[in-house]
Amino acid sequence: xxxxxxxxxxxxxxxxxxxxxxxxxxxxxxxxxxxxxxxxxxxxxxxxxxxxxxxxxxxxxxxxxxxxxxxxxxxxxxxxxxxxxxxxxxxxxxxxxxxxxxxxxxxxxxxxxxxxxxxxxxxxxxxxxxxxxxxxxxxxxxxxxxxxxxxxxxxxxxxxxxxxxxxxxxxxxxxxxxxxxxxxxxxxxxxxxxxxxxxxxxxxxxxxxxxxxxxxxxxxxxxxxxxxxxxxxxxxxxxxxxxxxxxxxxxxxxxxxxxxxxxxxxxxxxxxxxxxxxxxxxxxxxxxxxxxxxxxxxxxxxxxxxxxxxxxxxxxxxxxxxxxxxxxxxxxxxxxxxxxxxxxxxxxxxxxxxxxxxxxxxxxxxxxxxxxxxxxxxxxxxxxxxxxxxxxxxxxxxxxxxxxxxxxxxxxxxxxxxxxxxxxxxxxxxxxxxxxxxxxxxxxxxxxxxxxxxxxxxxxxxxxxxxxxxxxxxxxxxxxxxxxxxxxxxxxxxxxxxxxxxxxxxxxxxxxxxxxxxxxxxxxxxxxxxxxxxxxxxxxxxxxxxxxxxxxxxxxxxxxxxxxxxxxxxxxxxxxxxxxxxxxxxxxxxxxxxxxxxxxxxxxxxxxxxxxxxxxxxxxxxxxxxxxxxxxxxxxxxxxxxxxxxxxxxxxxxxxxxxxxxxxxxxxxxxxxxxxxxxxxxxxxxxxxxxxxxxxxxxxxxxxxxxxxxxxxxxxxxxxxxxxxxxxxxxxxxxxxxxxxxxxxxxxxxxxxxxxxxxxxxxxxxxxx
Length: 769
What we know:
The protein is α/β, with parallel strands linked by helices. It folds into three domains: about 30-125, Chitobiase, domain 2 (2-Layer Sandwich), CATH 3.30.379.10; about 130-335 and about 345-495, Glycosidases (TIM Barrel, Alpha-Beta Barrel), CATH 3.20.20.80; about 520-765, Four Helix Bundle (Hemerythrin (Met), subunit A) (Up-down Bundle).
């Protein structure tokens, strides 16, 4: 659409005219209130400075089926129109990025607005997705437990500039659960034994664990209540539709004990933890609890439309059991119900279908009774993670008795389980949101797959078999890593992200670093080919051993069998060296330095793994000299990486300091620090979760991973080519890990004086390895 203002038209009047033409029925913003415009302006001012006040914003009278914005800049004046406050913010950010004037990321922002904004006329830019969702239930354990309002305010701004309108809003619910269980007769001592620690609340909420790292301090519950009020206020002002929690059926053990006649199942232990308890939705208590929870939640935080209830997150539904006397019979014959242990048991298909249909309808009815217009939301992760149970017939049965417009599925795992929505026939006419987890546990190897996202999303949009596809989302378990992935995918969710990956990369470099060049574009292309062409970091779960690299995994002498990491190390090496060669010209661009360090530590971590394999192989042959040489290379590289990582936003010290600062008493501070240290190392339980949330952080390389492997290599060297009792050595190592978590040690971030020179020195060490 061409646009040429007449001499008598102001830019604002003319832009309002083009917006009117784009959307019949456009009225003044007053018809929707000024609050949305004010909220959008506030985001722009916080993120881009006082000059953002000069941007003319025009809000359409109503949201559209296809969200949209339009940008017009002429004569140095900028005007943006859109159908929601989020669309307005997104439009401003898209324009400023394209102009090379700004980038907003977890690592920090670069804002350099030119004295005169360049001319532009985008016409109407539509998203093919009605909603852009964000966050994962697990994010609230792996990333946000110590966040206050300042950090949450920034994250909501991040959502707005990336066009997110449907975030999961899970903070503050323990305040409601506490009030609920008090009403149902639980005492303070029972509640103290029930709630899990602050860094483990997501898995408690989903019924996987109970009372782990207890008690949860009362002050944490109260702080998060006040925080959620502010979070929801900001989200609603921006026109976002947050997804809120609902009752999924899990009850405290103390509640089960007090209600022996209730139909409550003792669910099997998850990942080595003790059992939890699930109330059958057919029991009258289920509806009472669900309704009361929503009443209390609404009184505390206001009403919502979308409510999340996940009853079977890596927990299989009870099918064979029936009645209060069958508490031990969930599904199958007693094997551990974990992601790593799948037990196939013959179940009558008719019984299975009927039971699942009844469960699904009753869960929905329990929400409807309190919020008649509500939509039940569930994550679709279980359909991929437990696909042996959730075959197409089971999925159809579970969803089938819920009205089509009253259930939304978050199909979050398409980068790992890409066939779920197809097997489920687009979830039988239910609205659903397509997306990727990408990140697991906040663990941060450098990876993603930019070309895959581009082709996959384009194919999704073009498909005729997507049923009621209603949105796209990113559902990371942890934040603060690989921000390029999230920038790329949300760009694709709005406007295709540019003509090609190469063009998008060049534009991103200009926005993120201030400028680009053929040499920088070439280096970034190599980085994509070497690291960002990996859909799923498969080696993080090698032989049921978590950890991003071998160096992060609990030591074992079997690492010679490790097949190697995904990605192209040769191209990664070339990319790092190409970026390092350009670094002197970009040394004053903090985001360039951060990205260079991140790519270099990925390369060095892969080399550490190679040297670990060499050391283990040499010691097992009885070649102590060769083993010692490899070990010295490991130590040299690990300590060099540790020193460099002081430039990154997060370190072991900052994670622990944030945890400690969240406490108001010495006891609370100690509890939070223990939670923080445990989560990124041992996690908990007797299953396979140790190192699941391993981090490439300063402090962990030098003080945890290196000494842990050092102890193991000492034992290997002592054994030589003779018998080696690995089980005993590992047992001793686990005791050392627990002592490390319990130790009261002060960590301090140490920033490298010259990180660019540090990368050069690290590359020299890799050359000598």
